Structures are given as C-alpha cells and as structure tokens.
From TrEMBL:
Alphabetical list of InterPro entries matching this protein: Aldo-Keto_reductase (IPR050791), NAD(P)_OxRdtase_dom_sf (IPR036812), NADP_OxRdtase_dom (IPR023210)
Assigned keywords, A-Z: Oxidoreductase
UniProt GO cellular component terms: cytoplasm
One Pfam family linked to the record: Aldo_ket_red
Protein name in the entry: Oxidoreductase
Length: 341
C-alpha cells in the first residue's frame, strides 16, 4: 500500500484547498533528467492514489512540456475536479537557467494565461503565480493584471513566487494573495526573516519548493547524482568548490536522521512542518521527484514528531552548508532583502 497524505488540506481561498504535500511538476519537463511519457503518467496516477491533489507547474518548465504532460493526464483520467492546479507566469525563455528574463507587464500576463490553459486542457487555474517580480514593473501593476484574470474566470486565486516581505504586503493591498511560494528547507532559511512573518500577518499560505534542497537532503544523493542532475550545476551549492563540503553536511544529517529512525527526506519535511506549525503558518510542501518511493518519504513526514534536541541538532549541522541557494541574489527574495550575498 502506498503512503497516503493524512495531513489536513490547506485552504488558500474560498473553495480552494491544497493537499499538505503537493507535487512540483518541474521534474516532468526533464530538468533533473529525462522521463518517459509512460513513466510520467504512472507517476501522476500514483499521486492520485496517494491523495496528492495539488499540482504545481509553470509555463517555462520545459517550454510548456510540464503543462502538456499534466494536461494529458487530466484528459486521460477525467479527474480535473480532484486537483488544485497552479501554474506561473513571468519568467521568459533565455539561454537557460541564470540567463532568463522577467516580464510582469499586463500584455505578457494576458498573453501567457491562454497558452497555459490550452496546454493543461482546463478552463481555469486554481492558483496563478507571478513567477518572479519584474524590476521594471511595480508589483502592484502585475497583481492588477492578474486580478483581471480572476474577474474573467480564468484564474481562481493569485500567488506570488520569490517576493520580499515588502512586495507581498504591497501586492496584497491590491488584491488578496492566496499563496507565496519560495524555497524553504533546513539549509535555505532566509525567508524566515521577512517573508514568512509577512505571510502570517496577512493570512497568506506558504508553498515551499525544494524542501529537500534539490535532492541533497535525501538518503541517496552523492556527487555522481549531482553530476547527472541537469540544472543543479547552475546552483552554487552544487559547484566544485562547495559540493564536497555540502555532501559531508548531508552525510552528517543522514546520521542524525538515522538516530531519529527515518529517512533524511522525511526528517527534512517534518522539520518544515514543525517550524510552520510553531509559527502559525499554513504550509504546503511541493517536492519534485520522478520516483513515487521518494515522494512517499515526504508524505510520511506528517506522522513524524521531532523533539527540541533533534531540531537543534539538525539545525546546527545544516548551518554549515556552503554557498547561496541561488545563482543570482536578485533572483530570489532573500537576495533583494540583503540576506543573500
């Protein structure tokens, strides 16, 4: 029997709930290695079987490939109503990760929504994110354009990805923001300074991507997997200067997890869930994987309780991670808040 999601669903807006563990569908676009269509469809069937009903994708994942795979799944199963589907707009194709641009203008937003709806084969998205704020367009203007899509019935709620605490407050004053999405994990904690307090203050749900740090916080990650990891090579933590030390940190975290009696991925997600509950934050974690067995480890976190000593030990080891979480500090909230150099 597969591990099933037992944590309560997270409400983000009227009539919209996200399963506490969602699925980050960037992996369906081959970002961390190729995946055959049949394997992708079996994976998505497994999500449904496990009660994972939140699917998170974006127009730029594989230049629309991720949305297309999800669209074929929804058409094949006829289960659209079982899922809360999120996509994103704002990042524009360039020369690959680290070389992309950003557009948050009304024209671009209105142009891109129809492409996402068509690829997914749906009439409306449950959640539509501004993927990154555009430095040349006030966030208020981008949110006003997204609000038009809500009024037209193409979008049911609005989200923001990698915004600062201040940007979140400014956006929320224009239209209610249902969710803010950023990287958050044992080794990526900059959002705790400004973004998470703003989300709590405004009643905005937090969607954590890379909760196991692109596979680093698992029992199977090593230098060979990193070399095969596609886009990982664009992130400083996986480059030649930082990876050896970070692999050692991960090995020490595995030892802590072993004493706890659970896989490191389970422990890492349980740590997130504990910190969110402690802060009064509504949390959804969206691990991205091509393996149902790996997903099961994240789902199992709901039944794991960590005590104060275990939390302190995990955090002390994780604090020794080397390298920023991003290739460009301005690309993420913490960089623009002066927390990532």
């Amino acid at each position: 029997m597969p591990t099933t999601v037992t944590a309560p669903a997270v409400p983000i807006a009227d009539g919209i709930e996200l399963s506490a563990i969602g699925y980050g569908a960037m992996s369906l676009a081959g970002v961390y290695g190729a995946i055959e269509e049949a394997d992708a469809q079996r994976l998505l069937d497994g999500l449904l079987e496990r009660g994972v009903t939140h699917l998170d994708t974006a127009n730029v994942y594989g230049q629309g490939a991720s949305e297309q795979v999800l669209g074929r799944f929804l058409a094949r199963t006829g289960q659209r109503d079982r899922f809360a589907i999120a996509s994103k707009v704002g990042i524009v194709q360039g020369g690959g990760i680290g070389k992309r641009g950003v557009r948050g203008d009304r024209e671009h937003i209105r142009e891109q929504i129809d492409g996402s709806l068509s690829r997914l084969g749906v009439d409306a998205l449950d959640l539509y994110y501004l993927h990154r704020p555009d430095p040349s367009v006030p966030v208020e203007e981008s949110v006003a354009a997204l609000a038009e899509l809500v009024e037209e019935g193409k979008v049911r709620s609005i989200g923001l990805s990698e915004v600062t605490g201040e940007e979140l407050r400014r956006a929320h004053a224009v239209h209610p923001i249902a969710a803010v999405q950023s990287e958050w994990s044992l080794v990526s904690r900059d959002v705790e300074r400004y973004v998470i307090p703003a989300a709590i203050e405004l009643g905005v749900a937090f969607v954590a991507y890379s909760p196991v740090s692109r596979g680093l916080l698992t029992d199977r990650f090593d230098a060979e997997i990193s070399a095969l990891g596609g886009s990982r090579r664009n992130f400083p933590r996986f480059d030649a200067s930082n990876l050896p030390g970070n692999l050692a940190v991960a090995e020490r975290l595995r030892a802590v997890a072993g004493r706890i009696g659970a896989p490191l991925a389970t422990v890492a997600v349980a740590w997130l869930e504990h910190r969110a509950a402690e802060a009064g934050l509504r949390l959804v974690a969206i691990p991205g994987t091509r393996s149902l067995a790996h997903l099961d480890e994240s789902i199992a976190a709901a039944s794991l309780r960590l005590d104060a000593e275990q939390l302190a030990e995990l955090e002390a080891v994780a604090a020794e991670i080397s390298g920023p979480r991003t290739f460009d500090p301005l690309w993420v909230s913490g960089g623009r808040e002066g927390l990532i150099g």
